[in-house]
Amino acid sequence: LFFSKIINHSCPDTIDERTINKKNLTLYKKHENLTLALSSAQSIGCNIVNIDAHDLIKGSPHLVLGLLWQIIRIGLFNQITLENCPGLATLLQDGERIEDLLKLSPEAILLRWVNHHLENAGIARRCNNFQSDITDSEIYTYLIKQIAPNSAGITLEALMEPNHMSRAEIMLQQAAKLGCRSFVTPSDVVNGIYKLNLAFVANMFNNYPGLDKPESNIEGLESLEETREEKTYRNWMNSMGVMPHVNWLYSDLADGLVIFQLYDIIKPGTVNWNKVHKKFTKLRKFMEKLENCNYAVELGKQMNFSLVGIAGQDINDGNATLTLALIWQLMRSYTLSILTSLAGTQGSTVEKEIVQWVNSKLQAAGKTSSIKGFQDYAISDGKVVLDLIDAIKPGSVNYDLIKEGGTEKVRILSIK
Questions:
Q1: What pTM was estimated for this model as a whole?
Q2: Which part of the chain is the Calponin-homology (CH) domain (predicted)?
């Protein structure tokens, strides 16, 4: 129950609470809840490789805490976007365009945000990390004072205290006036615990960004906002455990390294890592990244992807349409590889065989629903999927929760 609640807090409506077992919780029902939570965590981009419901039931500390941090991190960083905070445009440096902001990690944006407010406060000191630089609470004290409304009564009294532990406590008391005393204790601040301090700063940003909206609309902002399709692909990649974490598809795939990791996950041994530039030299960085992208496209062709008109240069340039075409085929190939593995068959499973299997399962279970393909409109209300689930595991679907009707609202409820 806890994981489901915190997932919905980080990403609202991820889990339909009607599906959560809440009463008379047997071990089996608890296992179902944890399986639901893990699947949902994966859907929002959490890496759940090597984690299953049994690990959570056993309470394996490093796995539980690792998953919990991922969920919290996603929830905190979801708001650090131009869509939610257009004022982020004020953090651009000389010579940068709005696209350059998207290439930054949330951590890098938060560092810019902190330093922006330090500069506006007339403070010469700058923050380069959320570890050693914040242990004396000085930066936090100035930041809280700068972002707070005048009515909050924030003071700089913490700076008068020479003892760092006591100073951190006074600083946190000031943060409490803003409702932002979360994630850290004085000890966490003094010891520079990275994850907790990062969460503390992100929470302050989400509540009091203190950034002026641009005087005019940002040109091309709509085209830069992440689409549902892009978010789905990004979350899928991150759930696979790729490194580094993918924040913006088109910049984070430009060196090919994430794509190579995905190839190796789909079909181990596909990538000849001796041909891959894992680190880039200062003088040949551009050519080395381009060579990686050329090799990534070459591997796609070896896996029979349809890549007509797609070159490594397109991936390196961040061409949206062509990059998405490659990613879609990667995700499709991964899904089919899983199905092939489950079926225990030789060779690749094709979509036609999956459709035939679905319809045979439905018919054998006495269901009246069926599909003609993955683009069949019959899938749009989710009922055929529910029938398939019930056919695979009879009694697992509570049909009392499914409403009749063809409105969009009813379809969404069924899909959830």
A1: 0.83
A2: 1-76, 104-209, 227-335, 348-416
